[in-house]
Amino acid sequence: CICIVFVPMFFLTGVAKYLFVPLAEAVVFAMIASYILSRTLVPTLAMLLMGHAHAPKAGSKPNLFMRLYHRFDAGFERMRAAYIVILSTVLVRRGRFGTIFLGFCIVSMGLVFVLGEDFFPAVDAGDIRLHMRAPTGTRIEETARLADEVEKVIRQVVPQKELVTILDNLGLPYSGINLSYSNSGTIGTLDGEIQVALNEDHKPTQTYVDKLRQLLPQRFPGVEFFFQPADIVTQILNFGLPAAIDVQVVGNDQQGNFDVARKLYKQVRQIPGTVDTHIQQLVDEPVLNLDMDRTRLQQLNLSANNVAQNVLISLSGSTQTAPSFWFNNKNGVEYSVAIQTPQYDIDSIDQLLRTPVSATANGPTQLLGNLVRVGPQSQFALVSHYNIRPVIDLYVSVEKRDLGSVATQVNKLVEQARGSLPRGSQIVVRGQVQTMRTSFFGLGVGVAMAIVLVYLLIVVNFQSWVDPLIIISALPAALAGIMWMLFLTGTHLSVPALTGAIMTMGVATANSILMVSFARQRLHAGAPPLTAALEAGASRIRPVLMTAFAMIIGMIPMALGLGEGAEQNAPLGRAVIGGLLFATISTLFFVPLVFAAIHTRLARRNGGAHGEQGPDDGAGAGDGKHA
User: Fold this and answer.
1) What per-residue confidence (pLDDT) applies to 288?
2) Which site among 59, 192, 450, 468 is 20 to 30 Å from 21 CA-CA?
3) Can you tell me the distance from the alpha carbon of 395 to that of 388, in angstroms, rounded to the nearest whole number?
C-alpha cells in the first residue's frame, strides 16, 4: 500500500515531476528493499539471536533492560485494558459515535478554505538580492555612486559579523552573449542589483529585508527598490521571473497596454500581502530626436542613412576600420582597432551638432547641425516580447500571506481590467502561481488515484468488495488530521504537504489492513461481528501503535524545520504527523465500528445466528494476545 500510493506521482508533468518523482522513487525502492529484508534477513537473525534464549535462573536479579521492559509492558497492558473498555462502549453505541466522528471529519475538511495555498514554503538561504532603480536617464557614474550609498545603509542594518560579501551588478545585464544567462532584471545604466551574502550564524534574513524595505525609500526618495528571490529553489519555481506573479499585458499598443498596467499597479499595491510590486518596462527614457531636413540632404547628395551611420560611429564606435588591427612589435600581440569620439568631446548638444557627416570616407563633410533639427523626446527604456508579441510585465511578490489568496484577488482585478484593454490586447497571469495551480491539480488527482489504487489492490487480495471499503474508511480521518495539523501550526497548504498526505494514505491503509484482516479471521472462525471487531482491536493495538508512532517520531525533526533550508520539507512532516495521529484513532475505533456495523447487517440479511450478539457475549475479547 505504501508503494502503490506513489504510483500516481510518476504521471506528474512539468516542474512537479522533477521535484517529486525522485522522492517517490526513493520511498518505493526503500520499501521494496525493506520487504525483501523482512522476508530473508530478519527471520534469519531472529533464529540466530533468539534460538538459544534461555529462561532466567530462579532468584536471579533481572538486568536494567528487563526491568524497563517489564515496567513498560505492564503500563501498556493497563492502557490496552482501558482501550478495550472504551472500544466496547463505542461498538455498543456505534450509531452515535459514528455520526459524531463522520461529522467531525466533514467539518474538518472545511479548513482547506482557510489554510491558504503556497507552492513551496519560503526558504532562508542567507542571501539578499536587492534591486534598485534610479530615475530614468541616470548615468552609470551616478548609479554607481548611489549603489555605494545604499551599501552603507546595508552595513548599518546588517551587523558586520554576519556579512560575508556585498556584490554590485550595475548597468546592462552582465551577459553580453545571451541575455537568458541573466535574470538580474537590469535594463540600463539607471539600475542595478546588490547581492548580500550572510554567514551561517545570521539572524533570519527576512528581518533584514523588512528593515531595508522600510528604510531605503526614506533615505533615497525617487529611487525604486524591490527584492528578488535569492534562494535557488524559488528561482527555479519562478522560472527565472523576479516575482511569483507576473501579470502580462500583451499587444501591439504598448502605450495603451502600459496605461492598463499602471492602473493595475495602483490597485494591486493595495492588496494585503503584496510587496515589491513594480512594472518592469519604463516609458520615459529621455532621448534626443534628430529630425532630418530631407530637402537639404538631397541638395548635398546625402541620405538619411549617411547621417545615421556617422552619428552611430561617433557615439558608439565601430570596428570597421582600416587598418582593422594593430600589431605590437614589443610583445607580439595583435589588437583590434575601434574608433569612437571621446565622451568628453561630446558633453553638450552643441558639440553633438558639430559631428561631421559625409557620404564617403574621402568625400566632403557637413556638420550635423546643418542637416537636422534636435528636440527632446521620451521613449520606452525597455521593449519586451513574449511569443513575439510586445508585452508589459507587472511583477507582484507575496509576503506574510499565502500565494493562493493574493493570486485570487489579483485575478479579480485582472478580470475587471479586461474591459479597458486596447483592441487586440489581452492580459495573462503567469509565474509561480500558474505552476502551483497545475501542480495542485496533478497532486489532487494523484491523491484520488492513490485511494482508488489502494482499494483495488485490497479487493484483489481480500476477494471482497466490502472489506476494502471498511479498510479505507480510516482515510477521511487522516485527511482531517492533516487539515488540523496544518491549521494549528500556521502552515499553508503546499506541494510538500500534499506529498505528505499521499504518504499518510499508505501507512494509514496498512494499519487498517492489520485490523480488518484479524477481524475477518475471527469472523470466519465463528465469532460474532461485534466480538470479532473487539478482539481485532485488542490484538492489533500494539502493531498499529508501533507502526504509527515509528513514522511520527521519524517525522518530528522534519516537522520542526530546524537548520538551513529545512523550512522546505516542514509541511511534509507536519502533514504526516497530523494525518497519522487522526488515522490511528480512526483505525483503533472507527474501523472496528464500521466492520461490526456492516457485518452485523450482512449477518442479519443472511439470517446468521450471531447478527445480534454484543461484544460482551464473545469470549476472550479482553484476553486476546497482542501480535
Assistant:
1) 86
2) 468
3) 20
Q: Could you give the CA distance from residue 82 to residue 273 in angstroms, rounded to a whole number?
A: 49
Buried b / exposed e over 103-132, threshold 16 CB at 10 Å, is: eebeebeebeeebbbbbbbbbbbbbbbbbb
CA distance 12 to 178: 31
Model confidence at 56, pLDDT cuts 50, 70, 90, reads low
Q: Whose grid coordinates read 477521511?
A: 476
**Interval 474-498: pLDDT, tens:** 889 999 999 999 999 988 888 888 8
Helices (H) and strands (E) in the chain, counts: 20, 15
Distances 181 to 133, 174, 177, 240 between C-alpha atoms, Å: 21, 8, 8, 10
Enclosing H/E stretch for 41 = helix 41-50
The domain 296-371 is placed in CATH, from the list 3.40.50.2000, 3.40.50.720, 1.10.3720.10, 3.30.2090.10, at 3.30.2090.10
Out of 244-253, 323-332, 612-621, least confident range? 612-621
Nearest to 240 by CA among 432, 403, 433: 432
Fold of domain 130-227: Alpha-Beta Plaits (3.30.70)
Whether residue 149 is predicted with pLDDT greater than 90 in this model: the reply is yes
What is the spatial distance between Cα 581 and Cα 108, in angstroms, rounded to a whole number? Answer: 14
Hey, which residues does 64 pair with through a beta bridge?
none
C-alpha cell at 91: 461498538
Query: Exposed e or buried b for every residue in 373-388, given b needs 16+ CB within 10 A?
Result: eeeeeeebbeeeeeee
pTM for this predicted structure? 0.78
Average pLDDT in the chain: 84
pLDDT category of residue 366 using cuts at 50, 70 and 90: confident
Other CB atoms within a 10 A radius of the CB of residue 355 amount to: 22
User: Residues 582-599: pLDDT tens digits?
Assistant: 999 999 999 999 998 888
In the chain, domain spans = 130-227, 296-371
Q: Which residue type occupies 592?
A: P
Cell numbers linked to 34: 525493506
